[in-house]
Amino acid sequence: MLGETKKVVVVGGGITGLTAAYYLQKAAKTSQLPVAVTLIEASPRLGGKIQTVKKDGFIIEKGPDSFLTRKESVIRLIRETGLSGQLVNHLIGRSYALVNGQLHAIPEGSAMGIPTQMMPFLKTDLFSVSGKVRAGLDFLLPRSAMKNDDSLGRFFRRRLGGEIVENLIEPLLSVMYAGDIDKLSLMATFPQLHEIEQKYRSLILGMRKKTPDFVHQENSALATLEGGLGELVKGVEEQLDQGTVLKGTRVEKIVQRDDGKFNLSLNSGQQLLADSVIISTPHFTLPSMMPQCRFFDELQEMPAISVAAVHMAFHAEDVSWNMDGAGFVVSRNSDYTITSCTWMNKKWPHTAPVGKVLLRCYVGGAGDEAIVDLSDAEIEQIVLDDLKKTMSISSKPEFTIVSRWKKAMPQYTMGHTKRIEAIEAHIQEELPGLFIGGSSFRGISLPDCIEQGEEAARKTLAFLNDPNEKRLL
Asked: Where in the numbering of this chain does the Amine oxidase domain appear (predicted)?
C-alpha cells in the first residue's frame, strides 16, 4: 500500500506529460491516494507541438490541427476537460497528388495510397499502365520472409512497385513522418501491414477485408476544437492542482539514490526528490539528463528531422484554385520545395473569417532540412513561387506565419521497436520507478501521445502501490 505521501515528478509538459500529470492527480483525488504530482516544463508554455495562434479572426495551428475521431484517447481527454461542446467534425474529402507538375485526384478507396477499389484505380491518370500492371502483381506475389523488420519503402515497393510508391505512398507518408521511407521502420510505424500481408498474402486483398481499420481511416471524420487544439492544452492545465506546474524550468540531471528515490537537479539550482519520475521529453534529452545510464546513449543516434509550417492569409478574391478539394501532397519527382498544401478554410471553415483564405504549406523534411534555417521572407517567397504554379495568386498575403519545428519529427528507423523495448527493459531493471513516453517512442500522433501519457500514469500508480511488482509492469 502507499502509506506516506509519494511524490511523482513529470518531466516535459507536452501533451504526453500533461496527460500523465492530469490522470495521476485525478486518481489521487478520486481514490484518495497520498500522491503529490509536480509537472516541469523547460519552456514558458505547455503543450509541446500543440500551439494555436489567433490573429485577425484566423485560427492558426502551428502544430497538429486535428485528429481521427476513432482514436478514443483524445475524445476521452476532451470530455474530461469539459470541452465536448467545442468539437468540430469534418469528413475527409477529395485530395490531390502533385506529380511531375500536374495535380491528380487521389483515387477513391485509397488507404495510405494502397488501392482497395479497382475501378477508381484503373481509371486514374496518376499512374501509367505499366505502373498499374506492376501493382497488380501484388495478387500473385508470395508473402515476405521478413523476420525482424523492414523499411516502409522496401515493403511497399516489393508489394506494389516503385511508381505507386513515388507518386502517392511516399508523399502521403512524408506528411506524417517527414522522413525517408527507405529508412523508416515498418514494424514501428505500421506493423498491421505486415500482419495483413502474412494473413492474406495480397496486401490489396487484405486491405479490402480490413476496410474498417484502414479504408475507413482515410475517409473517417476528423475532429478539432472550435477554438483550436490549444484549448485542450489550456483545459488540461486548468484541471491541474494550483502550484504543481513549473514552467521555464529545466531538469539538468536525474540520479537515483540508493534508497530508490530520484534526485532531480534543476537549472534554478533547486533539488527535487521523487519516488517516481515520468520523462516525456524528446529522446535526445535523456542521455544528457542521465549520463550515468549508458543504455540511453543509443538514443543519441536516433534521428529527428526539422520542418516548417507556413501559414498565409489572403483576401478570397486574390487567390483561387479550380480543384474540388482541400489540398494536395507533392511527389519528390516534382520540382517543388513544399511537401504539401492545405486550404485550411476549406478543411475547417471556422479557421478564417468570411471572405478570407488561409493556406498552410510544409517545407523541410528528409533531404531538405536546410530550408528551415532560411529567413521568414525567403521561405515565404519560395512557398509563394511554388503555389503560383498550381493556383492563381494576384497579391502578397495579408500576413505569413512561419513556424519552425527543429528536430521535432523523431524518426523510427529500422529496429526502433526492439531498441525501445531494450531500453525499457534496462529501465525496469536498473531504474525502477522511472517511465518514459512521448512521440519519440511509441507513436507520434496526438492520440498516440495521449495514450502513452495514460499508460505512464497507470504504470506509475501500480509501481507506487507495490514497488516489488516493477518487473511485471
From this structure: 15-459
DSSP for 220-256 reads SEEEEETT-THHHHHHHHHHSPTT-EE-S--EEEEEE
- The answer as to whether 73 is a domain residue is no
Residues in the chain: 473
Cβ atoms of 197 and 156 closer than 8 Å: no
Q: Which three cell numbers stand for residue 297?
A: 546513449
Range of 275's domain? 6-45+231-302+413-472
Q: Average pLDDT over the chain, rounded to whole? A: 94
The one-letter amino acid code at 364 reads G
pLDDT in tens, 16-43: 999 999 999 999 999 999 999 999 999 9
Could you tell me which of 33, 32, 9 has the C-alpha nearest to residue 21?
Answer: 9
Residues 37 and 114 in one domain: no
- Angstrom distance (rounded) from CA 150 to CA 233: 36
Element (H or E) spanning 62, and its range?
none
Count of domains for the chain: 3
Which residues, 6 or more positions from 107, have their beta carbon under 8 angstroms from its beta carbon?
Answer: 115, 117, 120, 121, 123, 124, 126
Cα separation of 141 and 158, whole Å? 9
Q: Can you give the CATH number for the domain in which 423 is found?
A: 3.50.50.60
For 119-236, where are the E strands, in sequence order? Answer: 221-225
Query: CA 460 to CA 274: how far, in whole Å?
Result: 12
Query: Cβ of 135: how many Cβ atoms within 10 Å?
Result: 21
CB of 453 closer than 8 Å to CB of 20: yes
Is residue 58 within 8 Å of 353, Cβ to Cβ? yes
User: Is residue 4 helix, strand or coil?
Assistant: coil
The pTM of this model reads 0.94
* Interval 183-236: pLDDT, tens: 999 999 999 999 999 999 999 999 988 755 544 444 457 899 999 999 999 999
State pLDDT tens for residues 439-459.
999 999 999 999 999 999 999
Query: Is 391 within the bounds of a domain?
Result: yes
Section 90-111 average pLDDT: 88
Q: Show Cβ contacts of residue 259 under 8 Å, excluding neighbours closer than 6 positions.
A: none
